[in-house]
Each structure stands twice: as structure tokens, then as C-alpha cells.
Design brief:
Blueprint (H helix, E strand, L loop, with lengths): L6 E6 L12 H14 L4 E4 L1 H6 L1 H9 L3 E4 L12 H19 L5 E2 L13 H7 L4 E2 L20 E2 L5 E2 L5 E3 L2 E3 L4 H6 L2 H10 L6 E4 L17 H7 L4 H14 L5 H8 L9
Parallel strand pairs: 1-2, 1-10, 2-3, 4-5, 5-7
Antiparallel strand pairs: 6-7, 8-9
Helix pairs in contact: 1-9
């Protein structure tokens, strides 16, 4: 596989910790404008409940040429669901997005990148429902969900669909997802550049949440995280937009579904 650019991806979701269920809208629109300036068409992983509550926002991304993919209907980590609950959540979300856009929804990203050995059963569900790829595995140890030892480059599940692991680079013996979220906000820019060089054989994509650049949001301690981890959600939000725009402007990629269809037809099957 020869990587070709950096794909913009967005997890279009509420600020999961906030009472204001509409706060995500303004930063999401700002991200849409940024992608347009950078000449980047990417993939937007949408929560089904967001599509139900804010259909016009989802249409804005679709009309701008971005792929609309599924982030689940509810933002529930997969290991908290049994197989039938996984299926019900995915079926409901897929139906909402396809009705809204009139296009097939072929991409899926698990909430919190929570496809782990404990939730491996979701893979045949996705294959059965017609998804062509998943972007749900973090191939490293993580405070939340990770799959250490999983491939760091795209691979095909035995069930047929392609997996696009979170891009990670090894630093001091630890794999870090340097191209998105808290890591992209907090780590220095030289670290990101080094990660791109070390992960030259990976399929590169950024990932962002609306809260990552909501620098006007007052800081609050999220009870389930505590003060220190909560602070990580606020650090350097003001710089996130510029960091992402520089990455995309230098090498804008295409939506993930297009890259899977064009660049990843011969990826190896991996038994996990």
C-alpha cells in the first residue's frame, strides 16, 4: 500500500460530558469551513441521534462532498453491549443516515475506538449489514479501549470488511495515536511530523471531535475523569484548528470509502 495524503475525519457527536446538547454545532460548522479551505474531502462519522436531532447539519457535510459514515446510534462503547444490542444500534443508525443522505453508508467507527477482543463479535454484524470498512481499532494500550498487538496498517477481517486502524507511532515502547484528538492537540508539532515518518506505511487520517476546538467552553471537572484527565480535554483547543488545517493543506486525502475501494483492494486477511 502506498499512502496518498491525510484524510480528514470527524466524529460528529455531542459534547458527551456537557448539559448543552447543541454546543457541538458551532465548532462542527467551523471544521466544515476549515476542510473547505484546505481542499479536503473527508469522512464524517455521525451519531444516529445527532442525525435525528440535527439533520440539516449532516446534510451540510454531505453536500460539501464528505462521506457520511456511522459512529453508532448512541455513543455507547461496544463492550457494554451484547451482540443483539450492537446490531440494533448499528441498524438504527445506518437507516437514519441512509434515509437522510440517500446514499449507502459503508463505513463504521465504534464509539471510543472500542472494537477490542471483548467486542470482536461486532465484525460479523458489520459484514452482514453491508459495511465495507471499519475504523474502530486502536492498536495500542489505552486508558479507555485498545487492542495491543493488532496490526497498525490496514487489514481485512476474515468476514471480508477492511479495518483501518488508528494511526499510531511507537515512542519509548508505547504506541501513541499522534494524528488526532487529545494527542494532536497536546503533543508538539515536531512529534506529529516524527510520527508521520515513523508510520510511513500506514493509512493516514486525522480524527477530531467538535469539543477539540471549542476554546470558549468554560472548564469543568468531569466526575468520571477527575481534574487531571478533564484538563487534558481543554488543553490547546485554540490551536487544534490550525494544526489540523496545516496537516490537510500539506497533503489532503480523500474520503475513507474511496481510499478503501482504490488503494486497499489487496490488503491481507488477518485472523483476530
Amino acid at each position: 500500500m502506498a499512502p496518498s495524503g491525510i484524510t480528514f475525519t470527524l466524529d460528529l457527536e455531542h459534547h458527551w460530558y456537557a448539559e448543552d446538547r447543541n454546543r457541538f454545532v458551532a465548532p462542527a460548522i467551523a471544521l466544515l469551513a476549515m476542510a473547505d479551505r484546505a481542499g479536503a474531502r473527508g469522512t464524517v462519522f455521525v451519531l444516529g441521534e445527532v442525525a435525528d436531532s440535527h439533520p440539516d447539519l449532516v446534510r451540510k457535510f454531505a453536500d460539501a462532498g464528505h462521506e457520511i459514515a456511522l459512529h453508532g446510534y448512541h455513543h455507547t462503547p461496544l463492550p457494554k453491549l451484547d451482540v443483539q444490542q450492537m446490531r440494533d444500534d448499528i441498524v438504527r443508525g445506518k437507516a437514519v443516515l441512509e434515509s437522510l443522505t440517500g446514499q449507502a453508508c459503508v463505513g463504521y467507527r465504534a464509539p471510543y475506538f472500542s472494537l477490542t477482543p471483548a467486542s470482536r463479535a461486532v465484525v460479523p454484524v458489520l459484514a452482514d449489514l453491508g459495511f465495507s470498512y471499519s475504523s474502530s481499532v486502536l492498536p495500542a494500550a489505552s486508558p479507555q479501549f485498545g487492542w495491543p498487538g493488532a496490526p497498525t496498517t490496514p487489514f481485512r477481517w476474515a468476514e471480508g470488511l477492511v479495518e483501518l486502524p488508528v494511526p499510531v507511532a511507537l515512542f519509548f515502547g508505547r504506541g501513541l495515536p499522534y494524528l488526532g484528538g487529545t494527542y494532536l492537540r497536546v503533543l508538539p508539532t515536531w512529534f506529529t511530523s516524527l510520527g508521520l515518518r515513523r508510520g510511513a506505511d500506514q493509512l493516514h487520517w486525522t480524527y477530531t471531535h467538535p469539543y477539540d476546538l471549542d476554546d470558549d467552553e468554560p472548564f469543568t471537572v468531569i466526575p468520571q475523569l477527575g481534574r487531571a484527565q478533564s484538563r487534558l480535554l481543554w488543553i490547546r483547543r485554540r490551536s487544534m484548528m490550525a494544526r489540523t488545517e496545516r496537516l490537510l493543506g500539506a497533503a489532503p486525502g480523500r474520503p475513507l470509502a474511496e481510499r478503501v475501494a482504490d488503494e486497499l483492494t489487496d490488503v491481507a486477511v488477518v485472523a483476530l
